[in-house]
Each structure stands twice: as C-alpha cells, then as structure tokens.
Design a protein that fits this description.
The protein is elongated, with a radius of gyration of 15 Å. By secondary structure, the protein is α+β, with helices and mostly antiparallel strands. 24% of the residues lie in helices and 50% in strands.
C-alpha cells in the first residue's frame, strides 16, 4: 500500500482525531467545496530516494503538506496539536509500512477564502522516513 494511504489510516485510527474529523481526510484539491469542516487536505510535496553504489537502497523520505481546515482558528490549532502528538517522532508500523521516523518540519497558520467564507487552516509539513518495498 502507498505511504499516503497508510498515513491517512494512521491518523484516523487516533480516537481524538477521529472524533474531530470522522473520515474527512482528502488528497489536495479533492475536498468538495462546502463539505463539512473540520477536514484535512494533504499532498505529497516531494519524494527523496537514497542510493548506494550498487543501486537503490529503498530508503525514502516523503514530504507531505497537511492543511488542517476549520471554521475557527482554535479548532484548527487543536486538531493540529492532535496530529503533531500522533506523528512527531513516531517510528514503527504504519499499516504495512515500517516507518523509521516522522518529523514535523514546519507549522504555520494559513487562512484562505472559499465561496462559503474564510477557512482557517494550519499547514504542517511533515517528513516521513521509511523503507520503500518493491
């Protein structure tokens, strides 16, 4: 399974995150406008693969950008704190993938305009280190 799907499943498996979002985690630009909030929109920003002299080592670092979306800044920040607690420094199983480490690289407030009004967002950049299986 892809690390993207495993990351989403890992987040939703947390009862605090589930209580806030249910299952509203969407790939970037696929959240229907006007869909209920809060939600998370994510995208894979970059994938860096490590190589040795004999070829691909399968060690991979993926940078994800998570936008935690809400009607209020307070709720967006509360969910961001739940996400940070769940992910920061985590190493272990994430579904079928063994993760060597997850690191929060950036965390900013980024409100933006939608037809229905202003959406409060916390944008988090996370780095997921894992061994990619063939």
């Amino acid at each position: 399974m892809l690390i993207d799907a495993e990351l989403c499943s890992y987040l939703i498996a947390d009862t605090g995150i589930f209580d806030e979002l249910v299952d509203r985690i969407y790939p970037a630009l696929s959240r229907p406008q006007g869909d209920p909030l809060p939600a998370i929109a994510y995208q894979r920003v970059s994938t860096v693969r490590d190589y040795t002299h004999s070829g691909d080592s399968y060690y991979t670092v993926v940078r994800f950008q998570l936008d935690i979306l809400s009607k209020t800044r307070e709720q967006a920040r509360r969910i961001a704190n739940l996400v940070r607690s769940r992910l920061s420094g985590y190493a272990g199983a994430m579904g079928s993938i063994t993760v060597q480490g997850v690191f929060i690289d950036d965390d900013t407030d980024t409100p933006y305009q939608e037809e229905s009004g202003v959406i409060q967002a916390v944008r988090m950049d996370i780095l997921v280190h894992f061994e990619e299986v063939e």
